Protein: AEC family transporter
Amino acid sequence: MLAIANIVLPIFALIIAGYFLRRKNILSVNACTELNRYVVWLALPALMIDVMINSSWSELYQPEFFYAFELGVFIIFFGVLAFHWLKTKNLANATVDATSASYANTGFIGLPLCALTFGADKLGPAMIAAILTVSANFAVSIIFIEASSQSGKSLWITLRNVAVSLCKNPLIVAPVIAGILCASGVQLPYGAAQSIKLLGASASPCALVATGLFLAQRQESTSPVIAIELVVFKLVIQPLIVWYLAFQVFTMPPLWAKSAVILSALPTGTGPFMLAELYGKGGGIASRTIFLSTVLGIVTLSICLSILQA
Structure:
């Protein structure tokens, strides 16, 4: 149990530090935005590039990990989407709810958690899950919200806008750059490689503090019942589905199977809140779900790690 505590507590200690620094007004209201930008535009892309250029293609090519992780996401996403859409007749709000129930915090919590659990040189699964989350999963949510807006745009225009947005995302661009470098065989100069490594090393602590700063913001007053329902889907049902797929259906190395379960058991990331803020739909439920899943995730992740390492 002490080993599990040594993995989980450092993660949430930094989140709590960010939370109290904001609550005590030591860090201003702008700190969350600025630190988040630093992580998204510099630190996480650098970490992704560093992991990819120091990994072989055979290590990263694990299609069954992709199937297990993404099936877990989309089973929850489309199940919650259908249920909430039928109940409320509001596709936009149902999409935010479905995203809140399935969108894992792979970048800000998943990468540091996997680094502490498996080692800093075993981040391939977490990196791939982060790419899938911010690209494919986020794109699907945007498409459904755009479809609900009744703006008169054609499906082609919507898909084009989503594609352009994704191409501008640094968390998508960075792995593409790393892939080109690996395929070409070009070796980065020592100084450039060390700069990338230094930036990448700052990703985990800064991301965790930024998560705490976000959680310290005022939560909108909403009914807790829906948020609790979404948290149960995210922290309990989704990892159970992925556990079954990773260990009973598909065949993959133990590191990748365990990583798939851990990454699916992560709290809800900030993506649903960003989506809600962008379209003015369901922000209260999204922020409440992120807050509750992060707090309760201390317990559920500890249980998950204990079972996987037994």
User: Anything to note?
Assistant: The domain at 2-308 is CATH 1.20.1530.20 (Na+/H+ antiporter like fold). The chain has 15 helices and no strands. The two ends are 10 Å apart (CA to CA).
